[in-house]
Amino acid sequence: MVAGLEYPEEQTMKCAVCKHGETRPGTVSVTLERRGATLVFREVPALVCDNCGEAYHEEKVATQLMQQAEKAVRGGVEIDVAVCRGIPTT
């Protein structure tokens, strides 16, 4: 388990992509391309398949990433790499 990530056990699930693995709490990198900008968010909380690596994000995590991406693009950012901190997982 990754420090600070506390997913209830019932949130884990069988992977919808590979149909073999189980998801486990972890972090991943997410790359977003938006209006000509490329944004990379590192250490994004997710449930990650232990077989194929597919990542599943909670709605509030995805929403916050999209909001941060919009803010960066509006601010004129073209390329950025940021460590994701402070997004609650539950």
Automatic annotation (TrEMBL):
InterPro entries: Znf_MqsA-type. It comes from the Bacteria. Gene3D superfamilies: 3.10.20.860. This is YgiT-type zinc finger domain-containing protein. It comes from Candidatus Magnetaquiglobus chichijimensis.
